[in-house]
Amino acid sequence: MLMAVDIGNTNIVIGFLEGERIVGSYRITTKALHTSDEYTVMISQFLQISGYTRRDVEDVIVCSVVPKVMHSFRASIIKFLGFEPMVVGPGIKTGINIHMDDPKTMGADCLTDCVGAYYTYGGPVLVADFGTATTFNYVDGKGTIRAGYITTGIRAGAEALWGQTAQLPEVEIVRPKSILATNTRSAMQAGLYYTFLGGIERTVQQFREEIGEPFKVVTTGGLGRIFKDDTDVIDVYDPDLIFKGMALIYKRNVR
């Protein structure tokens, strides 16, 4: 069994993979800095919940965009499982080329999403991740990342809204019943939702105009689920895309 770990700015997501099948998935808050022993306890509990022991873990692959978490998490893997985790980064074979000004600056999560999307759904493909930040990356038909786009995530935008205004409350980010809001909370929810949805549709339109050829649109990220059924510009919503990408990268670098 392969343990795949996505260390993001908001959550650390741990997945247990048997081949291409995800048999367990768990989340830890990234913002709380934990010691290596605390991570060890959590991983042990997650394994137990899924019906595994540490002896069942053959290897670990980590995709991280939070360097300050890596030291403790890596130490927990070495201490608990007894080996170094494989880390997505320079020197790792991905099967994807990066045709950008400085390929080394591309986030490991974006790269892994692109691997998962291209080899699962084919190319050309526009890969969107709705996480702490919102990212779009275009992969051409030959498996080369040609362009990227980064903007504010909907949750970050929402926090700015209620954090910078004295009388606006914190609200849950959900699909509103109507844009015709009749109270402050529903007005905020409608405003956040439709502004972000419009941004998605306009962004995809601009990519289509400038690329000039058909492509699929594959989305992922925890907040992507609330938009997947409300627009025809999204072809596939895959919440497990990054795990699929990590599994594919692992196979190319298996030790």
From TrEMBL:
<feature type="binding site">
    <location>
        <position position="184"/>
    </location>
    <ligand>
        <name>substrate</name>
    </ligand>
</feature>
<comment type="similarity">
    <text>Belongs to the type III pantothenate kinase family.</text>
</comment>
<keyword id="KW-0547">Nucleotide-binding</keyword>
<protein>
    <recommendedName>
        <fullName>Type III pantothenate kinase</fullName>
        <ecNumber>2.7.1.33</ecNumber>
    </recommendedName>
</protein>
<dbReference type="GO" id="GO:0004594">
    <property type="term" value="F:pantothenate kinase activity"/>
</dbReference>
<feature type="binding site">
    <location>
        <position position="132"/>
    </location>
    <ligand>
        <name>ATP</name>
    </ligand>
</feature>
<comment type="subunit">
    <text>Homodimer.</text>
</comment>
<feature type="binding site">
    <location>
        <begin position="6"/>
        <end position="13"/>
    </location>
    <ligand>
        <name>ATP</name>
    </ligand>
</feature>
<dbReference type="GO" id="GO:0005737">
    <property type="term" value="C:cytoplasm"/>
</dbReference>
<feature type="binding site">
    <location>
        <begin position="107"/>
        <end position="110"/>
    </location>
    <ligand>
        <name>substrate</name>
    </ligand>
</feature>
<keyword id="KW-0479">Metal-binding</keyword>
<keyword id="KW-0067">ATP-binding</keyword>
<keyword id="KW-0808">Transferase</keyword>
<keyword id="KW-0963">Cytoplasm</keyword>
<dbReference type="InterPro" id="IPR043129">
    <property type="entry name" value="ATPase_NBD"/>
</dbReference>
<keyword id="KW-0173">Coenzyme A biosynthesis</keyword>
<dbReference type="GO" id="GO:0046872">
    <property type="term" value="F:metal ion binding"/>
</dbReference>
<comment type="function">
    <text>Catalyzes the phosphorylation of pantothenate (Pan), the first step in CoA biosynthesis.</text>
</comment>
<keyword id="KW-0630">Potassium</keyword>
<dbReference type="GO" id="GO:0005524">
    <property type="term" value="F:ATP binding"/>
</dbReference>
<keyword id="KW-0418">Kinase</keyword>
<feature type="active site" description="Proton acceptor">
    <location>
        <position position="109"/>
    </location>
</feature>
<comment type="pathway">
    <text>Cofactor biosynthesis; coenzyme A biosynthesis; CoA from (R)-pantothenate: step 1/5.</text>
</comment>
<feature type="binding site">
    <location>
        <position position="129"/>
    </location>
    <ligand>
        <name>K(+)</name>
    </ligand>
</feature>
<dbReference type="InterPro" id="IPR004619">
    <property type="entry name" value="Type_III_PanK"/>
</dbReference>
<dbReference type="Pfam" id="PF03309">
    <property type="entry name" value="Pan_kinase"/>
</dbReference>
<dbReference type="GO" id="GO:0015937">
    <property type="term" value="P:coenzyme A biosynthetic process"/>
</dbReference>
